[in-house]
Amino acid sequence: MHKIFGEFQENLSDEEEFLILGFSPSSIPIQQRWRNNGLSADFVADYLTTFFPAIDEDPDPEGKRVEIKGAVSYIANELLENAMKFNDDNSSYPIKFGLHILDIATEITLVLLATNSVSKQSLNKFQSFIHELLESDLDELYIRQLEKSAEDETGAASGLGLLTMKNDYFAKLGWKFETVQQEPEVVTVTTMVQLKV
Amino acid sequence: MEKQNVQGENYQVIGDPETATVYFKGSLRLGGMKEYEPIIKILDEMIQQDPSLITLNLRELEFLNSSGISMLSKFVLNVRKKKTIQIEIKGSDKIPWQGKSLKNLQRLMPGLKLELE
Q: Which of 66-85 (B) contact A at CB < 8 A?
């Protein structure tokens, strides 16, 4: 399988700054690992803002720093939470998180990625949500999902994290599904979030 | 009425029935609705007292994940159903997520008062 949805850049250059974190899903139960999502997200956001020269050229460098840090920390945390939540527990394939800084023609784009394995059962459900996300009116879908997640006692799988990235942070979203191993087959999904800063 | 308090590693939520105010502090990134239950309980009990106005003070809430946003949405929809209670949200314009995401709660309940300062 090799399927792309939304806005996804396949070949990210490693000539520019990047950071990759890896997690072995089987080493610590997800409950104990949960707090690591926040720690990792804050680390990535801090790491980023310390060597971001463009911030100093901004009329309000401190405000800009706080804003970028807030956005990266929120998006990284949601990507990690989703990757941990929807990872196929039967697979030992590692969960990966990456941050790339693309500086093209004075425009800086932050690219955040998370990769996790997915079970056959959750694959179809996820892909149909992606279709809904890409094709619906965003405003309407957002309110609909807020109401749906409020009524759903478990609050599971509302997609609210992805929706807030798109609706509140104006991020571009894309996904890649690919088979990374045969016998037993392992399919992974990589979620890519692109944020102009 | 006694104040209610839920405290975790990086956060604190205090419900004060006297002033019908719920204070949120720190970073809230709990894993799904089940873990938010003790906080939802504080919010639900506030609604049960049926005051004319409930205030959510988020001025020191640095971080809230999407499950937390879902919790706030649920609260707003429950209040809307009741029709007798107003909501006031006090936030901070120094905390970026608040300026970005709190306005969505107003779309769920147009009468909701949102004050960022």
A: 66-67, 69-71, 73-74, 77-78
CATH code reported for the domain at B4-116: 3.30.750.24
Find the DSSP H helices in chain A: 30-50, 61-86, 120-135, 138-151, 160-169
| CATH at A38 | 3.30.565
What are the contacts of B32-36 at 24+ separation with CB within 8 A? B32/A85, B32/A154, B32/A155, B32/A156, B32/B67, B33/A153, B33/A154, B33/A155, B33/A156, B33/B67, B33/B70, B33/B71, B34/A154, B35/B67, B36/A155, B36/B67, B36/B68, B36/B71
Q: What is the pLDDT of residues A144-173, one digit of tens each?
A: 887 787 676 655 557 899 999 999 999 999
C-alpha B104: how far from its chain's center?
13
Domain spans of chain B, in order of start: 4-116
Measure B80 CA to nearest chain A CA, in Å. Answer: 12
Q: Do A38 and B63 touch (CB under 8 A)?
A: yes
- Domain that includes residue A65, residue range: 2-118+168-196
How many domains are contained in chain A?
1
Which tens digit of pLDDT belongs to each residue from A44-64?
998 887 767 667 778 888 888
